[in-house]
Amino acid sequence: MSAILRSYGANVSVEEIVVDDPMDNEVLVRTVACGVCHSDLHFKQGSMPHFPVPAVLGHEAAGVVEKVGSGITDLKPGDHVIACNAIACGTCKQCLSGAPHLCMNRAPARRPRGAPPRLSQDGSKLLAFSDLGALSQYMLLPRGALVPIDKDIPLDRAALIGCAVLTGVGAALNTAKVAPGSRVAVFGCGGVGSSIVQGARIAGARQIIAVDIVQSKLESARRFGATDTVHASTANPVEAIMELTGDGVDYAFDAVGSTRLLSQCYESLAQRGMAVLVGAIPAGQKLSIDARGLLRERKVTGSFMGSNRFQVDMPYYLDLYRQGRLDLDAMVSNRLPLDRVEEAFAAFETGEAMRTVITFEGA
Ligand SMILES: [Zn+2]
Ligand SMILES: [Zn+2]
User: 40: CA distance to ligand 1 center in Å?
Assistant: First the structure.
């Protein structure tokens, strides 16, 4: 069974699909858990029209290898894996410059032209959102989309590493390179924001200010490492941050993806501070900032999927989890079966859920 989006704005339908056998470099994975991410919601609502429908949703998953193609020698049935859509070619300018997360070539993620489709229904091709299609009992993926992991890690926790944790922790550690002793503000404390909070704590920040409009998220942000919280519907976050820090923060992250929040991030910066856009932002939005602040060497940048090198980052983050330094347990706010996936989308509306994870039978 798979969660299929047939048209933008419609409800997801859970249906049987046909998953092909793995070709040479492909792996068939039995999905055990898949987190539901804001990008799935954006896709469902039609704000990512460059991803066509009908498509199988989902891109934050972990599972068990079921079958491997003839060219695969380093994975076998029974191995545990995390899937990641940052599939890289290894030969383009970005890959060769140390930024494989910005790989310019999508071909390695897909089957060659003329090959039968990986996913189909009644003979018609189905696309996989984000080239993963992870809200599905089975995923058929290129080897380059998978990282093997040890079997002691619960797969519903491991799944979160596939997107939210990779994006948030990576934004702090890889993109911003948060320095020990620095001050940090994080705007929006859902799955990605709380991962940024944790990344800043792991990096040794002295002060981490969590900003949100939902009280329960501010409380959980404290558990993840925030030293201060600002309720943005009752206080002006820029003024509150200035009051808490004296001269502003060294790093401010927009985990939501809003020009209003990003400009507040910028206004919250100390001299030489860095504002980082992490959340997905709709196309065409223009940012307005006081340009004179740039002369105080403030910077504005973005972080794409935590500037990840996921084959290296994921085992690192799992070590941090084992050592109790990265809390994945508290990030899972709810577990649901696939046929209740619409409830996961509805939970985004209230803003209360941290992360809903869809778990599959036999999990
Ligand atoms: Zn995601
Ligand atoms: Zn590349």
Answer: 7
